[in-house]
Every structure is written in structure tokens, then in C-alpha cells.
Design a protein that fits this description.
The protein is of the alpha/beta class and 174 residues long. It is built from 7 helices and 6 strands, in the order βααβααβαβαβαβ.
Length: 174
């Protein structure tokens, strides 16, 4: 069985684009280092929206177009994009906070199961927590952890709140 590193939405729009933050920029070197050092398979998610974004429920609640498919903001950060070309690396586009395809992907590509999943990325309080909870919902015995130093939230306070919520749901904090 393999360990898996799930890198959530490390895209230009979340780092230094439409929804970028100083905190997201600050964790980028640590995320790159973690991907380089990780001994196992690496799976990236990519937040994916379309031209009708402002007409969607998310667009009405967060009226900032971002991660529109095909734009520079939708792309993974340049250094991380290079890792998608190597063996044991995959990319899942997702149209929801938590990837609906993630459980099926793991079941199809790891029929023997996964030893553990470590989650890093953006934003701790939206997509990181959502994907960690999807993993716990579909694989309740799977050890899931979040490396806090490789995550950033919309605000530092919402980042901390999300970490505390995940800890209560038996997601280990590293």
C-alpha cells in the first residue's frame, strides 16, 4: 500500500491572483519542498469554474471570478505543475469544494487501499477541510493528516478554526 500526498488547489488565482493572500504566498516554498520530499504518490486537485461562475451559487456568495478553466489563474503554480508530469502523480479537476471524484479515483487506482493521506494546500477553511472530510466520510479507517505549515486559509483566524475542526473529526495535524 502507498501513502498519498493530496495537494489541494495550489493554483495561481489562490496564490497571487484574484483570491491570492500573503499567507498563500508564504507557504508556497514549504509546499514545493513537501512535494519534492514526499515518499509516495502525489495527487493534485484543481478548482475549476467556467464562464458562468457568477451565475452559480458559489459565484453569488463569492462574486470574484477565479480559476476559470483555461486561464492562467486556473493553472497550478509553475513549480508545482512540473511535478504532474512525473510517475505517481495525478491531477483531478473539481467543480465543488470537496472533490466528488476523489473517492472513486482512490478506489480505481489503489484497489489494495491507501496506507495514509496527507493533505496540504489552499484554502484550509474551504477546500482543504472539505477534501479531508470527504476522505474521512468515504474511508473512515484511513489515517488522514493535514500539514498545517503547508496550508493557508482565507484569514489566519479561519485557518486556525479549520484546523481545530479537523482535529475534532480525527484528522491528525502535522
Amino acid at each position: 500500500m502507498k501513502s498519498l500526498l493530496l495537494v489541494v488547489d495550489m493554483q495561481n488565482d489562490f496564490i497571487d491572483g484574484a483570491l491570492g493572500t500573503r499567507e498563500a504566498q508564504d507557504i508556497l516554498p514549504a509546499v514545493i519542498r513537501r512535494v519534492q520530499e514526499f515518499d509516495g504518490d502525489v495527487l493534485f486537485t484543481r478548482d475549476t469554474h467556467f464562464e458562468n461562475y457568477l451565475e452559480t451559487q458559489e459565484g453569488k456568495n463569492l462574486p470574484v471570478p477565479h480559476c476559470i478553466k483555461g486561464t492562467k489563474g486556473w493553472e497550478l503554480q509553475e513549480e508545482l505543475k512540473k511535478f504532474c508530469e512525473r510517475e505517481g502523480c495525478a491531477l483531478l479537476d473539481k467543480v465543488t469544494f470537496g472533490s466528488k471524484e476523489l473517492p472513486a479515483y482512490l478506489e480505481a487506482h489503489y484497489p489494495e487501499g491507501v496506507e495514509s493521506v496527507e493533505v496540504v494546500g489552499l484554502c484550509t477553511d474551504i477546500c482543504v477541510i472539505s477534501n479531508a472530510m470527504v476522505l474521512k466520510a468515504f474511508f473512515p479507517e484511513l489515517p488522514v493528516s493535514v500539514r498545517a505549515s503547508c496550508c493557508a486559509g482565507v484569514t489566519p483566524q479561519s485557518h486556525e478554526n479549520a484546523l481545530e475542526a479537523m482535529k475534532m473529526c480525527q484528522i491528525a495535524l502535522l
